[in-house]
Amino acid sequence: MSEAGKGGVAVHASVLVVEDEPKLRDLLRAYLEREGMTVLTAATGADAIALGMGSSPELVVLDLGLPDISGEAIATELRRSGDPLILILSARAEDEDRVRGLELGADDYLTKPFNPRELVLRVKALLRRGRAAPGQSEIRSFGGGQLVIDEGRREVQIGDTLVTLSPSEWGVLLTLARVPGRVYSRYELMNAVRGYEWQGYERVIDTHVKNLRRKLQAGAEGNAVIETVIGAGYRLRLSLDQP
Hints:
By secondary structure, this protein is α/β, with parallel strands linked by helices. Helices cover about 40% and strands about 20% of the residues.
């Protein structure tokens, strides 16, 4: 009997698994379908792009080591078409490889070999985080209107510019904005954007902050919206505007 059938809650989501190893691809499909997800699979980069553009999955499990097109190029194309959540699979375990994957805008990075149950846990956490904001309607303004966060629409405006954030970048910004000026450690931010206790490589949060800063900087007239506190973490430099 499936875990969902034993009392767990089925997760109704569309997931695209991109993996060229048939046994691993079938195994991941079985584990995800057991949780109630609709799973599409692709063995090549070309098929992944076609399926991603045609079906608009909520989440993509993407192997970087495909035979025809690099995982990096696939991630870029998928982001252009529908902005799905992306969980990267890779045999590359070096720190720089993790950072490079996350700089592409990926939301999580899992190295091979791995336990399929851990992948399911990460997929479910990403989906919960990706769906969390629409139920809220609060609009908050910071720094005299310099930064505006609309949680209901999941939109961020910096100056006169509307910026598009990945789910992980959104999670970082929303966490920092909860208490402007408060210093959040890398560990706190990592657990906030992962959605579960994550005992892992904390430097990945630096990559998300770097990407977030780059997007916010253009409309901030050169002023740093997110401030680094050496040895402690990060904080939102702008104060909350009073209604």
